[in-house]
Design goal:
The structure is a single chain. Helix content is about 40%, strand content about 20%. It is an alpha/beta fold. Strands 3-1-4-5-6-7-8 form a seven-stranded mixed sheet, sandwiched between helices. The radius of gyration is 22 Å and the shape is globular. The structure holds cobalamin and iron/sulfur cluster (SF4).
Length: about 500
């Protein structure tokens, strides 16, 4: 059968598609896990953000797929709905399957859609079994993790248990299935690799627990090394390790760094998401080892520097420094210090706009980012389906915006007890643009050609909405912010 898999084109403020266009790891994994007789094509629509309708139309006409699958995050739901309508109009008899975080966590939202199947949770084996059933006209009733749309409505089969990963059940991703080209992280071809799935923490803003429960399963190093090698052989010079929480087992992570070095794969630049506690508590040995293994950017889930906010986010434990079993306070500064000492860059993940936040508490976090992080990744708390945070915000009546396409993390959709959502967003937006410019020299040293050719576009993106007059203080920043909001609204119309 011909199968077309699509990831959505929607991006958000911290991922400007001029500079950052990453492949969707879930879809390449699905493509690697179907039976070999199928012809699977993956199209990451982020690569054709300005030509979505034309591209989907062309692909459906040329490939004549029997099955089309869409991978969807919550803020991409509206775009996905438009693409489903388009595909259905182009090929009325096609089977449409939706999967990923949003369908898994809010299946009820898809009940009125013209889709045939919804895959909840991990899709590698569920999708393989679904294609087998479609191909042979078999029953789909016994496929765990699958919801089925038939004439009588929707049937939700039992959930599928998380894959344990060590048994080879989930095969390597298929990168040859990707049709569109142009993946990049600031001029270097990028790919994504997973070494584990799951997390045992339960941060209130994170969807992971509702998605798969609290567990942590790992791939063998042989498989991980093969996967990295495959990504490199497909041209990647930067690799994003997309594990939910790779630092949960620090000793395993250290061994992974050793394995990367031993395999000679440490010329690649690695980008990883990390817990501050793991780096702070093991930094003495871990940080130099990471540097040797090729790690360049570390996304630190700092979340907030104030204890009250950390409690709301349920993120205190993962930000604790410990010594001889004793809790020593917030681990963030120590983690940053270790990373900087070993010439790695800190992408600072902070969340501002929590219920108790005042102007002063937000400013304290912004000031922290100004002083200590190399690249700010500041977001607002966003009530994604099924998270404990969403229940809290609902109970407190703080959700101000329910247009899901704005749930991209940098649009404030909830108010605090003291500030309107828009005011929170304004404070972040105003501060963050300037912080980003400070990283230009570091990128210039690493990728001079990219900076020389692309920096005008990058700056124009970072400062969109601003004018010479607003930068010089001759026009109010609020007017520039309103222009920025209007540009964002337009940008969201991808189809
Ligand atoms: C890596 C990652 C990123 C990377 C993405 C790299 C890439 N292109 O792959 C970066 C850092 C860029 C990123 C950005 C964002 N992310 Co993110 N990210 C993740 C993370 C850590 C892992 C995702 C992953 O690759 N997993 C590995 C793959 C194999 O698994 P998977 O994607 O889940 O796919 C499996 C199943 O979902 C399913 N499946 C998926 N699609 C489909 C489609 C079909 C047809 C089928 C059958 C099955 C299926 O099968 C797959 C294989 O088992 C998750 C989870 C977490 N712990 O935080 C968040 C997460 C997915 N991100 C999230 C969000 C919100 C974002 C942002 C909007 C803002 C932000 N918080 O940073 C941006 C938007 C990006 C953009 N387009 O502009 C949310 C989504 C919540 C929701 N309800 O939508 C998550 C869950 C984090 C959270 N807050 O809880 N993210
Ligand atoms: S530590 Fe990371 S992956 Fe785990 S629950 Fe918290 S935010 Fe989610």
């Amino acid at each position: 059968m011909n199968v077309l898999l699509l990831s959505m084109p929607d991006s958000f403020e911290h991922m400007p598609s001029i500079a950052i266009r990453m492949p969707n790891g879930g879809l390449s994994s699905l493509a690697g896990n179907v039976d070999p007789q199928h012809r699977v094509v993956v199209a990451d629509l982020i690569l054709v953000q300005g030509r979505v309708r034309e591209t989907v139309t062309r692909l459906v006409r040329e490939l004549q797929p029997e099955v089309v699958g869409l991978s969807i995050m919550t803020f991409q739901r509206r775009t996905a709905g438009r693409i489903v309508e388009l595909v259905r109009a182009l090929k009325p008899d096609v089977k449409i399957v939706v999967g990923g975080y949003d369908p898994s966590l809010a299946p009820e939202a898809y009940e009125a859609w013209s889709v045939d199947f919804l895959v909840r949770g991990e899709g590698d084996v569920t999708f393989r079994e679904l294609l087998r059933a479609i191909e042979h006209g078999g029953s789909v009733d016994a496929i765990h993790g699958l919801s089925v749309h038939n004439a009588n409505g929707w049937l939700h089969n039992p959930a599928r248990a998380p894959h344990r990963l060590e048994d080879g059940e989930v095969r390597l991703p298929n990168r040859d299935a990707r049709l569109l080209k142009g993946y990049t992280l600031m001029g270097r071809q990028i790919d994504v690799v997973e070494t584990s799935r799951g997390c045992t923490y339960d941060c209130s803003f994170c969807s992971i627990i509702e998605m798969r429960g609290r567990n942590f399963f790992t791939y063998s190093f042989d498989r991980v090394i093969d996967d990295i090698r495959d990504a490199r052989d497909h041209g990647a010079r930067t690799i994003f390790l997309v594990d939910d929480n790779i630092m949960l087992n620090v000793h395993r992570f250290e061994a992974l760094c050793e394995a990367i070095i031993a395999a000679g794969l440490n010329k690649i630049d690695y980008f990883v998401q990390a817990m501050t506690s793991s780096i702070a508590n093991h930094g003495e040995t871990l940080a130099p080892l990471m540097k040797r293994a090729g790690f360049r950017y570390v996304f630190l889930g700092i979340e907030n520097i104030l204890e009250g906010d950390l409690e709301f986010l349920r993120a205190s434990a993962k930000n604790q420094e410990r010594k001889n079993g004793q809790e020593m306070g917030n681990a963030t500064l120590k983690a940053i210090e270790y990373l900087h000492r070993h010439d790695m860059y800190v992408v600072g993940g902070l969340i501002v706009g929590n219920p108790g936040d005042t102007r002063e508490s937000i400013e304290a976090n912004l000031e922290f980012a100004r002083r200590y992080v190399d690249w700010p990744y500041i977001q607002h708390p966003t009530p994604y389906p099924g998270t404990p945070m969403t229940k809290d915000f609902r109970k407190q009546g703080l959700i101000q915006i329910d247009r899901l396409e704005e749930y991209d993390g940098t649009t404030a959709v909830v108010r605090t007890e003291h500030l309107e959502a828009e005011e929170v967003e304004f404070m972040r937006w105003k501060a963050e643009r300037w912080m980003k410019t400070r990283h230009i020299p570091a990128v210039l040293r690493h990728d001079p050609w990219f900076v020389l050719t692309q920096s005008p576009k990058m700056l124009a993106h970072t400062f969109r909405g601003s004018s010479i007059r607003s930068v010089l203080g001759l026009e109010s920043e609020r007017r520039a912010f309103q222009r920025y909001k209007a540009i964002r609204r337009e940008e969201r119309e991808y189809v």
